Amino acid sequence: MMNLEGKTVLVTGGAGFIGSHIVDRLLDLGAAVRVLDSFDDFYNGKESNIKHNLARSSFSLIRGSILDEGELLASLKGVDVVIHMAGQAGIRYCNTFPEKAHLINVVGTFNLLQAMRKLGLKRLIYASSSSIFGPLVRERIDEDHPTNPSSPYGATKLAAEKYCMGFGQVYGLEVTSLRYFSVYGPRGRPDQIIAATYDRIQKGSPPIIYGDGKQVRDFTFVSDAVDATVLAVQQEDSVSRIFNIGYGEAIEINDLMRRIMSRLNGGHNLQIQNEPSYLGDFLATFVDNSLARKILGWRPKVGIDQGLHNYFAWKTENGVN
Ligand SMILES: NC(=O)c1ccc[n+]([C@@H]2O[C@H](COP(=O)([O-])OP(=O)(O)OC[C@H]3O[C@@H](n4cnc5c(N)ncnc54)[C@H](O)[C@@H]3O)[C@@H](O)[C@H]2O)c1
């Protein structure tokens, strides 16, 4: 196991939802952490994700873009490990802005790989996604499940994953790809279903379900996603491998809504609003996470009820979007 104390880690997108939690954990483990983040206008409020770290001497922030070679090279100097979280997330948003998704997710990742090559840096963790799979051909999704993304977002995340693994093969980069499944929790993006539903209920607006609500998702609490990411950095056996990072419980969206509404004051009185399903949505994700358990020693700990409890406690303190 790699000891992170004294290591320098660059987290691209480290002001975002998942990235900022990874930053917190790395700092706690004694790493020096650098963040490269463009504070993209996809959504606001990312400053508050990192403000508690600004005064720490082991933390530094570079406001810049993975699309800018100079900024990339400057932020990569002297780095031991890169955790690449910068990306354009959101299937619906990427349906509307596919050029932006391509630019950030594919071109941005390619730029990062080239810059790492130029500087002779080796170790990279890539934030991939369950969206790369598309329609399920078997009940549980293991790492060998076919990848047929049904959206531009999924396609960009898969293309970038292929680039990362290809650079690993040819240029000796030590790459690990983590395919996160529907991550939620404190600092969650406002477009995500759990965050958006909470915010609407607090405002007295009906929660929205796209489609009939029979879609199934494997929701992963953010601290479990962070555990997997840090283990991937620490475990040498993770190099050149791809892992599915999902909790391992299939929840129907209608069931999720019931659980959310029963927890929140006023939730009972609201009628769910069913909107037409959007293109690129997929019927189900249900992970087989046995490879991550075996190789990383990862054990997801926070089930959906505990996760909702933790998240809503945080929301109560931190407010509505
Ligand atoms: N949240 C999930 O459920 C989930 C699931 C699977 C994969 N992912 C992937 O994990 C990563 C992080 O997702 P998130 O949910 O935390 O999203 P997020 O939007 O909160 O974080 C992404 C961060 O990247 C930054 N960024 C965007 N463009 C950039 C650029 N050109 N240069 C530098 N920084 C840039 C943004 O400002 C933001 O801080 C993304 O790559 C996403 O595709 C997320």
Task: Please tell me about this protein's structure.
This protein is an alpha/beta fold. It has a domain at 8-181 and 221-245 and 290-301: Rossmann fold (3-Layer(aba) Sandwich). The protein is 40% helix and 17% strand. It has helices at residues 17-28, 47-50, 69-76, 91-96, 98-119, 152-171, 193-202, 222-234, 253-263, 290-296, 304-318, and strands at 8-12, 32-37, 59-63, 81-84, 123-129, 174-180, 183-184, 208-210, 216-217, 220-221, 241-245, 251-252, 273-275. Strands 3-2-1-4-5-6-11 form a 7-stranded parallel β-sheet, with helices on both faces. Strand 1, helix 1 and strand 2 (32-37) form a beta-alpha-beta unit. Helix 5 packs parallel to helix 6 (152-171) and helix 7 (193-202) runs parallel beside helix 9. It is globular. The mean pLDDT is 96.
Layout of strands and helices, then pairs:
Blueprint: E1 8-12, H1 17-28, E2 32-37, H2 47-50, E3 59-63, H3 69-76, E4 81-84, H4 91-96, H5 98-119, E5 123-129, H6 152-171, E6 174-180, E7 183-184, H7 193-202, E8 208-210, E9 216-217, E10 220-221, H8 222-234, E11 241-245, E12 251-252, H9 253-263, E13 273-275, H10 290-296, H11 304-318
Parallel strand pairs: 1-2, 1-4, 2-3, 4-5, 5-6, 6-11, 7-10, 8-13
Antiparallel strand pairs: 9-12
Helix pairs in contact: 1-8, 3-5, 5-6, 7-9
Nicotinamide-adenine-dinucleotide (NAD) binds at residues 12-13, 15-19, 36-40, 42, 46, 65-67, 85-87, 89, 104, 108, 127, 129, 157, 180, 182-183, 189.
